Amino acid sequence: MIIHALTRDKGRYAGLVRGGAGRRLRGVLQPGNEVDLSWRGRLAEQLGTFTVEARKAHASNLFDAPIALAASSSALALLDIALPEREPHPALYDASLLLLNSMEQNNDVWPTLFVKWELGLLGEIGYGLDLNSCAATGSTEDLVYVSPKSGKAVSKTAGQPYHDRLLHLPVFLRSRSVDLTLSVAAQKSEILKGLTLTGYFIEKAILEHRPNVHLAARERFLTILEKSFFGPE
User: Fold this and answer.
1) Phi and psi for 52 in degrees, rounded to 5?
2) Is the pLDDT reported for residue 98 higher than 60?
């Protein structure tokens, strides 16, 4: 079996696992599992082979949490699609483990964390958004929009004439604290708007260079999440 692994110090790495489809390793080599790897190859540029030892079975811990399982599949697919091979991204590796661990706890925090994780992914591949000040005025107050062209925040006053052409900046990305005045439904709506924001720039970043790639896992996650929030239409 050929696997792709995200490593902390070596980046996304591919290798052949002998016997990977066998009974002993079948459960270990599941998407999202944390493993110890040793790589060998005659030349550095070759595919090489991995020896694998299990460390933590994230995948099985999500079997009873279908929304989180769909989210983890989306995150893993994005890592595999967006990251160049053998380019280290230690901060993204740490953030990905944090995201998986949060999903396993099955709490209400991980969806907002997922949006922030996608923002981090965009930053790692050179498409980071600037949400700290208004692109038009430089103000740091009342930031409610994001420009789809520049990826910069826009204040309510400056963006009002163009509001139908701007992206929504969710409340939880405007402040470090959670806005407890929002209703549960409003908080869920803000999460979906956050995923719309990151999704716009993810598609722009990835499809610009790989037009034949389809982000199917992310679309499935969004469908499942929206139905869980508000039910089928």
Assistant:
1) -125, 135
2) yes
